[in-house]
Write a structure and sequence with these properties.
- The protein is built from 5 helices and 2 strands; from the N terminus they run αβαβααα.
- By secondary structure, the chain is mainly α.
- A two-stranded antiparallel ribbon has the order 1-2.
- α1 (about 10-35) packs antiparallel against α4 (about 70-110).
- The longest helix is centred in the C-terminal third of the chain and has 44 residues, at about 70-110.
- It starts with 8 loop residues before the first helix and ends with a helix.
- The mean pLDDT is about 85.
Length: about 130
């Protein structure tokens, strides 16, 4: 029989909300990087560009101009989403261990002093 579950509400909610917020932030950043375009000017094809110096403009994706930003976006996502998720998983395991320890200590004290435990139950039930 368990007496309940122990966790720190503040840490639990902070880690869950931080991870969820960073997922949104990372998705928005990736969508912005993929959707942003830049206008570039290049020489025209053939004789018009090489001999006469004519140019043409074209719109290209921002990520095609800055391919080294892709690993940076991936690292940002892994760090900002992964660290709170790992911390939450680690804390959840520690909270489980603490819950079991507190439950065991409670029932051990109840078995060691059954008269006091029964008196406490009667006292608590009157309130």
């Amino acid at each position: 029989c368990k007496t309940g579950r122990w966790s720190t509400l503040q840490a639990s909610s902070f880690l869950e909300l931080t991870a969820a917020g960073q997922v949104k932030s990372t998705a928005c950043m990736a969508a912005t990087a993929a959707g942003t375009t830049a206008t570039i000017t290049v020489p025209a094809a053939g004789i018009w560009g090489s001999w006469f110096g004519l140019t043409t403009t074209s719109s290209v994706s921002w990520l095609s101009l800055h391919p080294m930003a892709i690993p940076g976006l991936a690292c940002y996502a892994a760090i900002t989403v992964g660290i709170p998720a790992v911390m939450y998983a680690t804390a959840k395991n520690k909270w489980k261990e603490t819950s079991q320890c507190l439950s065991d200590a409670f029932w051990k004290s109840a078995m060691d002093n059954p008269e006091i435990f029964a008196e406490c139950l009667l006292h608590w039930s009157e309130k």
